[in-house]
Structures are given as structure tokens and as C-alpha cells.
Write a structure and sequence with these properties.
By secondary structure, this protein is mainly β. 0% of the residues lie in helices and 65% in strands. The protein is built from no helices and 6 strands. The strands form 2 sheets. A 4-stranded antiparallel β-sheet has the order 3-2-5-6, with no helix packed on it. The chain has a two-stranded antiparallel sheet with strand order 1-4. Strand 5 and strand 6 form a beta hairpin. The termini are close together. 8% of the residues are buried.
């Protein structure tokens, strides 16, 4: 409950940026990651609610946008 885990597939580029936004568009968290695998973002400081996760390449190309809900 206090973390968000993302499974990044092998088609993903080596360097990526994972961003977590409020639904109002406020950037709450940024994590730079390498390669594939599972990325975990801590969410203990966030209240219950809906958020948007973006995964971008190192050149800024948007790969994934997902809405997530913390209960």
C-alpha cells in the first residue's frame, strides 16, 4: 500500500524517467531508472486518491500513461 510497483518490459529503452502526478497536474515524484524490471515508487506520503503515472524515454518520448488509485 505504501509503494507503487511498475513492471517495465524488455521493449523499453535503457534509461527512463518515471513521473507521478496528481490529477490536477502537479508533479509529485520523479524517478530515473535504468533498463527493464520492476520499478518501485514510495507512496506512503501520499493520501488515498487517484494519480497519473508517466514513463518517458531519456529523450522525453512518452511511452506509457496510466491512472492509478491509492486506497
Amino acid at each position: 500500500r505504501d509503494q507503487l510497483s511498475l513492471q517495465l518490459e524488455e521493449v523499453a529503452p535503457t534509461r527512463m524517467m518515471v513521473r507521478l502526478f496528481s490529477l490536477r497536474g502537479q508533479l509529485l515524484q520523479t524517478e530515473e531508472v535504468n533498463g527493464v524490471g520492476i520499478v518501485t515508487l514510495p507512496t506512503s506520503q501520499l493520501p488515498a486518491g487517484s494519480y497519473v503515472v508517466q514513463v518517458l524515454t531519456d529523450t522525453g518520448e512518452l511511452l506509457v500513461v496510466r491512472k492509478v488509485v491509492k486506497y
